[in-house]
Amino acid sequence: ISILIDKGKSAGSRNENDETLNAMYAQRCDEWVCFNKALQSFWLGHSERFNHYSKKLLENQLGSHNKSTILFYAALNAFRGVNKDARRGSKFTKAKVEYREAIYVLGPLAELSPLNYGSKVYLLQAEMLALDRKDQEAKSLYAAAITLFCSSGYVQEHGLACELAGQHYKRIGEVETALDFFEQSKRCYMRWGSQMKVEFINQQIE
């Protein structure tokens, strides 16, 4: 803004400033495109495509909200690739690394704004506990995450938390509870307007 309102600059300086502004605008546009493509890839289940865009984003100086969002989804994306019954291998190791990086950034933000970021921390902690087979503790944190997502109005992430809780309960053999969470997830995705996710949950229920 200061560049635009400074009328004391020469024409040559204005041209240089125009070029600087154009470069900054192009970078912001590229960041916006990558950010949205990363999120789209996550929700479509395209793990490697998400990794491509998230890596590109994290190489730049992101704002705290965008960085925390990408790290949150990067950790969840890594958890997706792990066989929770195996608990070993490169994917298991990567999930733990992604988790630590996300918690390092999200933890302080959750203290400042529990409603916006606490839900994300709880969900990541629940997934980590599920990976470590600490099933009872995981249950408590899935419930805490779901409660906060519901209060904050993030309907798609509320649906995601219910979906992941359903998968956890299904894995440990508590089928009725899993079905209840899947139904909650489906209602959230219907409100969000994602027929693709509704169909995915229907497959989980079947």
Nutshell version of this structure?
The chain has 206 residues and is mainly alpha-helical.
The chain-level structural class is: mainly alpha
Distance between the termini: 56 Å
Main pleated-sheet profile = none
Indicate the mean pLDDT: 87
Strand residue content: under 5%
Please compute the radius of gyration using only Cα atoms.
Answer: 20 Å
- SSE pattern: HHHHHHHHHH
Number of helical elements: 10
Low-pLDDT runs: 1-11
Helix content: over 70%
Which shape, going by the Cα principal axes?
A: globular
Per DSSP E runs of 2 or more residues, the count of β-strands stands at: 0
Question: Could you give the topology of this structure?
Answer:
Blueprint: H1 2-5, H2 11-44, H3 47-58, H4 64-80, H5 90-112, H6 114-131, H7 135-152, H8 155-171, H9 175-192, H10 195-205
Helix pairs in contact: 2-3, 2-4, 3-4, 4-5, 4-6, 5-6, 6-7, 7-8, 8-9, 9-10
Give an overview of the whole structure.
Helices cover 83% and strands 0% of the residues. It has helices spanning 2-5, 11-44, 47-58, 64-80, 90-112, 114-131, 135-152, 155-171, 175-192, 195-205. The model is unreliable at 1-11 (pLDDT under 50). Helix 7 (135-152) packs antiparallel against helix 8.
